């Protein structure tokens, strides 16, 4: 009796690293388009879908906000992914930074004082986001508890903390809408005319990229984070405590994501709307896609962020039988990410089909 | 009347870069315990793995009961009544004994209650002298009990041939005796045992015949009655020419004690004591060589010195500072260099460049890495040790094994100011570089008073490099000799006793 | 009686959480990290709803198709993670996104049709009749059945072995891929059943996003109970009760959000406790959960 089996073998020579991301973008968009066409029983026109994505890609001024925010989140997550610590808790860290920044802007009394307010929002936001990451980092570093479920579940805890704050003490008093009052205009980031972005956001994006590039390439901490991801034993032998590296990478990661949270509040939302779990821009999750597709290279994060933000914008424009835009974007993101997660291994492995008799 | 049970004919097995077995032939008769002896890398394990279907031979044939067989998987081997028990128990810790055993019994279907094999398992365990409830979880068992479970499983699988690949190495004496008694009864029923061991006396005690392998070839097979320790030792190690070094270097040894170890007990990966009551000291400028068969506890001893493995009992002091169970970073900061047993897994990060691997060490850089200074250091090491690399910014996984080793040695030798702890420091090096490394170590000892503790599988190296030679066997130090008083015969004998 | 009132209103949600968490536990016991659960749950909810609309509330077809879609997604997860050296987390999250998206695309047209026809879906569980008792019987019965399979049969030993140490399991003669596929089919079928129960017995309405987060509560039930089928009954009941009565706990002076967050807090606390205390022997995470497993085939 003949049987066919798939055998996975290591390649002698790895494929170029750009193959997998490129393949997953093109194949992912194609598969997702076909999938939508099938599931809606032919009611979505693939041409319309593709045209919409093309249009979004060609309008950078409309992508600016999401592009910059995703770059920051992507870079932040990259720091932990480099150490093989999978920070899925970007959402929670994002919201904790927003909580801190909102408090500074609304209740600390400095909300209207130029410069100081923004600096304080950033500093306190980043610290609180880092603290939230630390809660997951400690059990991971010292007890070996998997950070993936912990950071993930903590997102929901963060949402509910936001919901509680906004629903009760921070609720906008006038109409009792489920949201906070708008933060003082003095604390808003300055919009770049004709775009969706703000000056501070662009500056922060540049600073984050440069800062993390320096950290990863010119410090022993950065080097240790890198080595942690490929061989933690070496750290032990050299005399560096791997637990501390795990904790540092996750906390730094959370702090960077926090920068995006503050920027989102000050540059875009200007208030918190609840329920957070439904109103979130989901950047903590989409950032994962950006970080993965960048192959964990800082220089490629903006490229991935650009394409993903174009997909988000395209999704907004595609109306499928009344299905929400989020759904369409999710189909694209899910398909691309799935194809990438599988195809990336073929950089190092290949599959052979063996027929046994 | 001798009946051939297993016949191995002219079996050859190549691995990339080595010839593991070179036309090996030997015969196991029905009802005998056949010992396979040899140094590390002699090919014993490869041979039993071929019989167990883990490897298939490149050339040659295997006959069982006179029938030529091609065994392609362990499943195949089990079907022919061949079962392997190795040094590391193949058991799942969180399952119970019956659960572990039922996994291997193919004639039970998915919904068979595990209880159905309970009594069967119980009686086999009892016959092995093991009164354990088969519903006990495996993690509650001692190493010895786990090994017995392995043998019990082999019996439940109806093994006609038991392959014991160093399975008895770590068993305590009383348990070993019990097992040997059992094996003697077992072969009386027409079964056979192939026993791999390092221990000569063990082989002489239990086996009917002994086959010695060296470097992939059969040196010979000896009947137990005609065997004698000296003869077999010669067969195992060969008659190596040994010329003692002419220049004496004793004067470089100082009075201060750099490394002091007292009554040290350390457990190994399997939870058994691998270092047993070791007391040693290394003086300033002294090189202490530890001779011993691999797995005698050298790795665990070194890891304990480096703070990488927990010390259960005893004291370690480096230069008067108590470093027992201290953090590795602290121990290293005292000026301790370390060449670990598995350089690719523990010494170097192969995804990173030579410069990065150097920068990782605290001595070479502060928090902010001065890449300029690192590059100078790296260039110097590359020059001095003749490391062949396209550049210092090439990921080191692209370097050859020898060059990786050079890189590690150069980094650690530079790093060590007080003490160098090294496991097989010249493994993988060509003779020229190996000599150079030995010379560098001696130079550093003479000029800077560096103390060295090292272990090596190569006795020539032990004799050439050491001022003092300690022999380690089963976790104990069984002899300490001044280099000029040690004889090769005596050291070899202590290694395999 | 008040207790009957509480038990009967909690029953449908408890059933949904319990079935999904039980399925999740089996999948994870076999070593596959299941981050797709929330997505799969939401997708199965949408499929159950859409099919109920299209079949005029047929009692069987929506459940069957919902379960089938859950199994289909689950098999992608199980097969890729057991055959290839891929990241369990990455595949799970990708599938989560994909399922979120598909649920919207599948559910919205059905919702539109519902707007036109006014077709109602599902079956309310009334406290007056004693149908709710049946739900508890199903829960307890399944709990004991799965506990029996996991702890008393060869299949259970195979599943646990694949989750603890797949390489050793292979060496012992277990076909890890087949075992995980078996566990995956069983597990995702239960997740799909749970989602159907959620839609058809509990919410009985649908709008975009229905079910999001409830898959994670099932995940939390499973983690909190250390993936133990019998302990899971208690946690599923508690979390369902908490969710059902989250507005009532305001009366005790606790914020409603506290009740919302409690399952997640309990799950994380439980994970820490199970890892750091003697309870770990029975309730800890399977040792190889989420670790890439694949055999690089030897070239013979």
Q: Can you give a write-up of this model?
A:
The complex is a heterotrimer of chains A (357), B (497) and C (300). By secondary structure, chain A is mainly α. Chain A contains 14 helices and two strands. The model of chain A has no long low-confidence stretch (mean pLDDT 88). Chain B has a six-stranded mixed beta sheet, sandwiched between helices. Chain B has a six-stranded mixed beta sheet with strand order 16-17-18-13-19-20, sandwiched between helices. In chain B, strands 2-1-4-5 form a four-stranded antiparallel beta sheet, with helices on one face. Chain B is globular. Chain B starts with a strand and ends with a helix. Helix content of chain C is 73%, strand content 0%. In chain C, α1 packs across α10, α2 (37-54) runs parallel beside α4 (88-117) and α6 packs across α7. The chains are: A mainly alpha (357), B alpha/beta (497), C mainly alpha (300). Chains in contact: A-B, A-C, B-C. Chains A and B meet through α8 and α9 of A and α10 and α11 of B.
Described by the principal axes of the CA atoms, the overall outline of chain B is globular
Kindly name the structural category of chain C: mainly alpha
pLDDT average of chain C, as an integer?
89
Low-confidence stretches of chain C: none
Specify the helix fraction band of chain B.
Answer: 25-40%
Strand order in the sheet with the most strands of chain B? 6-7-8-3-9-10
Query: So how many helices of chain C?
Result: 12
Distance between the termini of chain C: 72 Å
Distance between the termini of chain B: 33 Å
Major sheet attributes of chain C: none
Helix content of chain C: over 70%
Q: How much strand content do the residues of chain C show?
A: under 5%
Number of strand segments of chain C: 0
- Assembly state of the chains shown: heterotrimer
Biggest sheet features of chain B: 6 strands, mixed
Beta-strand share of residues of chain B: 25-35%
Name the descriptors:
heterotrimer; B: 497 residues; alpha/beta; Rossmann fold; 6-stranded mixed sheet; 20 strands; C: 300 residues; mainly alpha; 73% helix
């Amino acid at each position: 009796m003949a049987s066919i089996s798939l055998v996975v073998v290591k390649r002698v020579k790895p494929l170029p690293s750009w193959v997998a991301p490129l393949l997953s973008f093109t194949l992912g968009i194609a598969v997702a388009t076909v999938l939508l066409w099938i599931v809606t029983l032919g009611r979505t026109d693939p041409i319309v879908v593709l045209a919409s994505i093309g249009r979004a890609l060609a309008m950078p001024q409309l992508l600016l906000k999401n592009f910059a925010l995703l770059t920051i989140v992507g870079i932040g997550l990259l720091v932990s992914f480099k150490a093989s610590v999978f920070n899925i808790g970007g959402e929670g860290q994002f919201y904790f930074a927003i909580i801190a920044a909102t408090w500074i802007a609304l209740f600390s009394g400095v909300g209207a004082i130029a410069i100081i307010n923004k600096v304080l929002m950033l500093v306190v936001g980043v610290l609180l986001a880092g603290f939230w990451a630390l809660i997951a980092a400690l059990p991971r570093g010292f007890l070996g508890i998997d950070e993936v479920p912990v950071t993930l579940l903590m997102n929901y805890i963060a949402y509910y903390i936001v919901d509680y704050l906004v629903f009760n003490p921070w609720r906008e008093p006038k109409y009792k809408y489920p949201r906070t009052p708008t933060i003082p205009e003095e604390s808003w980031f300055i919009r770049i005319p004709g775009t969706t972005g703000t000056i501070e956001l662009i500056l922060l994006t540049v600073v984050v990229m440069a800062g993390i590039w320096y950290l990863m390439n010119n410090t022993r901490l950065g080097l240790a984070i890198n080595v942690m991801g490929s061989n933690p034993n070496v750290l032990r032998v050299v005399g560096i405590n791997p637990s501390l590296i795990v904790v540092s990478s996750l906390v730094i990661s959370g702090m960077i994501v926090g920068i995006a949270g503050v920027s989102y509040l000050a540059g875009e939302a200007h208030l918190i709307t609840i329920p957070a779990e439904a109103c979130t821009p989901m950047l903590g999750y989409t950032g994962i896609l950006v970080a993965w597709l960048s192959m964990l290279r800082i220089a490629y994060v903006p490229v991935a962020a650009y394409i993903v933000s174009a997909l988000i914008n395209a999704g907004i424009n595609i109306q499928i039988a009344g299905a929400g835009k989020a759904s369409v974007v999710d189909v694209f993101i899910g398909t691309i990410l799935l194809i990438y997660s599988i195809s990336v291994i073929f950089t190092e492995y290949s599959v052979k089909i063996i027929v046994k008799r | 009347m001798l009946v051939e049970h297993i016949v191995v004919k002219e079996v050859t097995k190549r691995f990339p870069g080595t010839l593991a077995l070179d036309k090996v032939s030997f015969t196991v008769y029905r009802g005998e315990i056949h010992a396979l002896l040899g140094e590390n890398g002699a090919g014993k394990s490869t041979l039993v793995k071929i019989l167990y279907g883990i490897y298939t031979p490149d050339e040659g044939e295997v006959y069982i009961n006179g029938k030529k067989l091609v065994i392609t998987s362990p499943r195949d081997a089990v079907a022919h009544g061949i079962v392997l028990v190795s040094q590391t128990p193949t058991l799942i810790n969180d399952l119970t004994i019956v659960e572990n055993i039922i996994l291997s019994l193919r004639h039970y279907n998915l919904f068979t209650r595990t209880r159905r094999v309970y009594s069967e398992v119980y009686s086999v365990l009892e016959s092995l002298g093991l009164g354990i409830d088969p519903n006990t979880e495996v993690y509650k068992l001692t190493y010895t009990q786990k090994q017995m479970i392995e043998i019990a499983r082999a019996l439940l699988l109806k093994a006609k041939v038991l392959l014991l690949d160093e399975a008895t190495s770590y068993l305590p004496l009383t348990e070993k005796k019990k097992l040997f008694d059992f094996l003697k009864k077992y072969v009386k029923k027409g079964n056979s045992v192939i026993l791999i061991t390092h221990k000569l006396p063990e082989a002489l005690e239990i086996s009917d015949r002994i086959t010695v392998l060296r470097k992939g070839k059969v040196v010979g097979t000896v009947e137990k009655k005609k065997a004698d320790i000296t003869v077999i030792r010669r067969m195992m190690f060969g008659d190596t020419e040994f010329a003692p070094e002419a220049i004496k270097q004793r004067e470089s040894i100082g009075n201060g004690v750099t490394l002091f170890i007292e009554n040290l007990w350390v457990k190994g990966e399997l939870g058994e004591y691998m270092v047993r009551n070791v007391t040693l000291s290394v003086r300033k400028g002294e090189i202490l060589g530890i001779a011993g068969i691999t797995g005698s506890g050298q790795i665990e001893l070194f890891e304990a010195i480096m703070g990488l493995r927990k010390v259960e009992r005893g004291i370690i002091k480096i230069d008067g500072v108590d470093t027992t169970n201290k953090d590795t970073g602290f121990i290293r900061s005292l000026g301790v260099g370390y060449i670990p047993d598995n350089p690719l897994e523990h010494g170097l990060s192969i995804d990173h460049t030579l410069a990065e691997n150097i920068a990782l060490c605290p001595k070479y850089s502060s928090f902010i890495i001065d890449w300029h200074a690192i590059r100078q250091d790296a260039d110097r090491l590359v020059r001095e040790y003749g490391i062949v690399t396209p550049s210092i910014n090439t990921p080191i996984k692209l370097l050859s094994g020898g060059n990786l080793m050079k890189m590690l040695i150069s980094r650690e030798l530079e790093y060590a100011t007080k003490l160098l702890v090294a496991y097989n420091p010249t493994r993988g090096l060509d003779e020229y570089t190996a000599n150079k490394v030995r010379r560098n170590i001696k130079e550093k000892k003479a000029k800077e008073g560096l103390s060295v503790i090292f272990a090596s599988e190569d006795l020539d190296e032990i004799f050439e490099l050491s001022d003092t030679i300690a022999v380690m066997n089963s976790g104990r130090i069984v002899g300490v000799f001044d280099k000029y008083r040690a004889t090769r015969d005596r050291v070899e004998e202590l290694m395999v006793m | 009686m008040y207790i009957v009132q509480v038990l009967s209103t909690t029953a449908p949600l408890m059933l949904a959480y319990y079935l999904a968490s039980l399925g999740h536990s089996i999948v994870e016991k076999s070593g596959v990290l299941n981050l797709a659960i929330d997505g799969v749950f939401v997708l199965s909810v949408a499929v159950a709803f859409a099919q109920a609309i299209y079949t005029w509330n047929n009692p069987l077809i929506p459940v069957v198709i919902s379960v089938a879609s859950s199994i289909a997604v689950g098999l992608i997860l199980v097969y890729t993670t057991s055959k290839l050296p891929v990241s369990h987390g990455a595949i799970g999250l990708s599938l989560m996104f994909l399922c979120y998206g598909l649920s919207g695309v599948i559910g919205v047209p059905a919702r539109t049709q519902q707007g036109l026809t006014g077709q109602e879906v599902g079956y309310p569980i009334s406290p007056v009749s004693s149908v709710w008792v049946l739900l508890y019987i199903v829960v307890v019965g399944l709990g004991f059945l799965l506990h029996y399979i996991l702890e008393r049969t060869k299949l259970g030993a195979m599943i646990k072995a694949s989750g603890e140490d797949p390489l050793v399991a292979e060496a012992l003669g277990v076909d890890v891929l087949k075992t995980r596929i078996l566990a995956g089919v069983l597990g995702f079928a239960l997740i799909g059943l749970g989602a159907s129960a959620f839609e058809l017995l509990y919410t009985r309405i649908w709008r975009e996003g229905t079910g999001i987060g409830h898959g994670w509560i099932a995940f939390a039930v499973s983690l909190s109970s250390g993936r133990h089928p019998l302990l899971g009954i208690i946690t599923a009941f508690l979390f369902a009760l908490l969710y059902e009565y989250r507005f009532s706990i305001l009366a005790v002076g606790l914020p409603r959000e506290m009740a919302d967050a409690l399952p997640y807090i309990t799950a994380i606390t439980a994970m820490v406790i199970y890892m750091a205390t003697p309870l770990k022997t029975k309730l800890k995470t399977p040792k190889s959960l989420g670790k890439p497993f694949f055999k690089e085939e030897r070239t013979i």
